[in-house]
From TrEMBL:
Domain of life: Bacteria
Keywords on record: Membrane, Transmembrane, Transmembrane helix
Key word Transmembrane present: yes
Transmembrane segments: 732-752
InterPro entries per the UniProt record, alphabetical: Terpenoid_cyclase/PrenylTrfase
Region described as Disordered: spans on this chain: 341-382
Biased composition (Low complexity): 350-382
Protein name: Squalene cyclase C-terminal domain-containing protein
Length: 767
């Protein structure tokens, strides 16, 4: 049985909407790290390696983009693809399908294989997904609106009609794509509840992203849906699904709740769905006792299952995925943006006191060593729920925020705000993809004028002008996540730069250790700024310090080192492979120097070589060094290597309260827990959606990394490259196999084409 990627993604949407996004992690990992998203939105999965990745399925492409956003992954680097660019590429810019999200082939040789079966589900999801990343496409929105009939509903299929018009919008045989009104005389414009619900979600998303002129079509859509609600509170879909059902009702209720102005209809729709849901109160003693929470396609099916149990489980799964969206009442736009009610509203803001100048301005007032953990890493066969562990860790970190937005410490009987710990905690939450509201609140606290003065300029303890590079760099990165203007921060950081590419603090208490980690932060912040090319000198200064074995020393002051520090090396890898928020490539960028490419490859190789079979680094007594293991995982993943082995190992160390203990400790420690976040997540923050810089290239593209990566316990994501036809096979045999593969590909392609025609009315969200 082939994987049902569309249903997987529907389930992913539902899990995140309900606040249980951690349960969707296996789906996300399968699609992204596993490299299977492209099996869905291209034809490559049919006959791999034959070039069919050039055939793009429009609706599936948009659906994958939205999945990446909902899952908190980088939509410009999902399964190695820039899904924003891929989705925009499906929108035809000329010809009969102008403005339509379309199935097409990038390779003209395969053009005849493709029939454009893209429909309004894909059109709507493309509008939603592009709006959520600030890339609303007016042409796609305008085309969406042509498919609304005067009554307010939307049809599901685009239809061609004969025309005497001329122009590039007319096909060679005299047809054009009709509007909904134009299609009525040709019986092409039947109302479709599902398409109407999805289109309403799309229009609301576009409006919320700043697109104007949509109030009237939204109002017409809402009015039509309210009029079409059944006496029982449900809605039907389109042809063959006209009767009320929970599947259609879920999509429509979600859209109406997002649009507003239909509270009564929303309440009745939710009641209809709940009347088809197995609950503990109603079903604990019958055949549905082990299926609590499941939603039937309609109330009649639910009543029958009380006695007979679930018959046709696939129908229940599909109904549950889409119906649950109504119960969560989180619109697609909020879902994609991560605006979920995942934690309680904090209380009133406590009085924040700038911390004492006793510690270094860039360090916590109570630094805690993070060298080893109290338990050994689990065996490779241990079963660990990594998603649940990440969820618990995120909740633990968010729960440590005083007043919901900052960390405090006690020193000499006084309470101080620990700005550095707060900044690290914000980045930890972003890395985990957990507790987005908590991360946003803490970021706003840090970016307040008084916080910036205290953290980055030493107020009130500095008596003159002062500025600290690492705090400024971290604030710039945090501002980038929140899309907050950071011009003053960038200017302050730039003022600290020296001709040799380093950054020097000013003031009475500067950081003088010249650490590589501090230097890496300044590179990342510069790349996130208005003049990213200024980072070139700093990158070269970093490369100059690389040790003989590919690692980097803890300090830039080191000379002629044979080996270095793993945490510093991980930070260096992250900086070396970073670029301004942009698409990930599969080759070394042209602007890179050969030294940078070699330095990155050598450092990534060194990191991969230093972890054991469980993906961790051990310290005294063979115990897992949580902080270094987490840093190494972040560095490996920042280079495009897989770090899921580390995630599994550290997940086993997460305690019941969500934290991790410091060495020898029996209770959770905040500093250790913050440091562990990247390891538990198995990724760097540069791979997170919304990060101000992104990974520049996925390894193993650079020489020397492929062999190392294959030796690790988990396979790393790799870029596609041709396979050599060597190894002593006869040329005639190779040629024969190639010919047979081509023939098989053609047969399958034509078969799929006929299959799509036969099944184009099958209902699924944006296939």
């Amino acid at each position: 049985m082939l994987p049902d990627h569309g249903l997987m993604i529907d389930t992913l949407y539902a899990m995140h909407a309900s606040g249980d996004g951690d349960l969707a992690t296996p789906i996300t990992s399968y699609l992204d790290e596993g490299g299977h998203a492209s099996d869905y939105f291209t034809w490559d999965g049919l006959v791999p390696g034959m070039g069919f990745d050039a055939i793009i399925v429009g609706g599936a492409t948009a659906k994958v983009l939205l999945a990446a956003e909902v899952a908190g992954r980088d939509p410009r680097d999902f399964d190695g693809y820039d899904m924003v660019a891929e989705t925009k590429g499906t929108i035809m810019r000329a010809g009969p399908d102008k403005g339509r999200v379309s199935d097409y082939s990038k390779d003209p040789a395969f053009a005849d294989f493709v029939s454009n079966n893209a429909n309004m589900f894909g059109q709507s999801l493309a509008v939603i997904a592009l709006a959520a990343v600030g890339q609303s496409d007016q042409m796609a929105i305008d085309t969406l609106l042509t498919q609304q009939c005067a009554e307010g509903y939307f049809r599901i299929f685009f239809g061609y009609i004969p025309t005497t018009e001329t122009g590039d919008h007319v096909t060679s045989n005299g047809y054009k794509v009709s509007s909904c009104e134009e299609g009525k005389p040709f019986d092409q414009s039947a109302p479709d509840g599902d398409a109407t619900g999805m289109a309403l979600s799309a229009l609301v998303a576009a409006r919320r992203s700043g697109v104007t002129g949509l109030d009237a079509p939204i109002a017409r859509t809402v009015a039509w849906l309210k009029q079409r609600q059944s006496a029982g509170g449900g809605w039907g879909g389109g042809v063959n699904t006209e009767a009320p059902n929970t599947n259609s009702t879920g999509l429509i209720v979600q859209a109406l709740a997002d649009a507003g102005g239909a509270d009564t209809a929303v309440e009745r729709g939710m009641a209809y769905i709940k009347s088809a849901q197995a609950t503990a109160a109603a079903d604990s003693g019958n055949a549905l006792a082990e299926e609590l929470g499941a939603i039937a396609y309609n109330p009649e099916q639910y009543q029958a299952a009380k006695t007979d149990g679930i018959v046709g489980r696939d129908t229940w799964i599909r109904a549950s995925a889409q119906a649950s969206l109504a119960l969560s009442q989180v619109g697609f736009y909020d879902l994609a943006r991560g605006n979920l009610p995942v934690d309680p509203t904090p209380g009133s803001e406590p009085t924040a006191t700038p911390r004492s100048p006793a510690p270094s301005p860039t360090q916590s007032a109570n630094p805690t060593p993070t060298t080893t953990a109290t338990r050994a890493a689990p065996s490779p066969t241990a079963t660990v729920d990594g998603a649940a562990a990440a969820q618990r860790l995120g909740a633990y970190l968010a729960g440590k925020l005083v007043g919901g937005d900052h960390i405090e410490v006690r020193q000499d009987g006084k309470t101080y705000v620990d700005y550095d710990a707060t900044a690290d905690l914000v980045l930890a939450l972003h890395t985990l993809g957990i507790q987005p509201q908590a991360a946003t609140r803490a970021a706003r606290f840090l970016l307040r004028e008084q916080s910036v003065k205290a953290y980055a300029h030493g107020a009130p303890y500095e008596t003159g002008e002062a500025a600290y590079a690492e705090p400024l760099a971290k604030l710039i990165v945090i501002a980038g996540f929140t899309r907050t203007a950071a011009g003053d921060l960038h200017n302050s950081l730039a003022a600290l730069s020296t001709p040799d590419g380093e950054f020097v603090d000013t003031g009475q208490t500067p950081d003088t250790d010249r650490s590589v980690e501090r230097h890496a932060w300044t590179i990342l912040a510069t790349l996130a700024g208005p003049e990213p090319d200024r980072a070139t000198r700093s990158i070269e200064a970093l490369i100059n310090q690389q040790c003989a074995d590919g690692t980097f020393p803890a300090s830039l002051a080191s000379t002629g080192c044979s080996t270095g520090d793993l945490a510093a090396t991980a930070a260096a890898v992250t900086a070396l492979n970073a670029q301004p928020r942009a698409a990930t490539g599969t080759a070394v960028p042209d602007r890179w120097s050969p030294r940078r490419a070699k330095a990155l490859a050598d450092a990534a190789t060194a990191l991969a070589n230093r972890v054991n079979g469980n993906g961790v680094v051990t310290g005294a007594g063979g115990r897992t060094d949580v902080a270094v293991s987490a840093a190494t995982a972040a560095g490996r993943q920042a280079a495009g290597l897989d770090a899921s082995d580390t995630a599994r190992a550290l997940a086993a160390l997460v305690r019941k309260d969500g934290g991790l203990a410091k060495p020898g400790g029996t209770t959770s420690d905040l500093a250790t827990s913050i440091a562990a976040a990247a390891g538990v997540a198995g990724r760097a923050w540069t791979s997170v959606t919304g990060a101000p810089v992104s990974r520049a290239v996925r390894l193993p593209v650079l020489t020397g990394v492929a062999a190392v990566n294959q030796a690790t316990t988990s396979p790393a994501p790799t870029v596609a490259r041709p396979v050599s036809a060597s190894g002593g096979w006869p040329r005639w045999l190779i040629a024969g196999l190639v010919a047979l593969s081509v023939l098989l590909a053609v047969v399958l392609a034509l078969g799929l084409r006929r299959f799509l025609h036969r099944n184009q009315k099958a209902k699924a969200v944006a296939r």
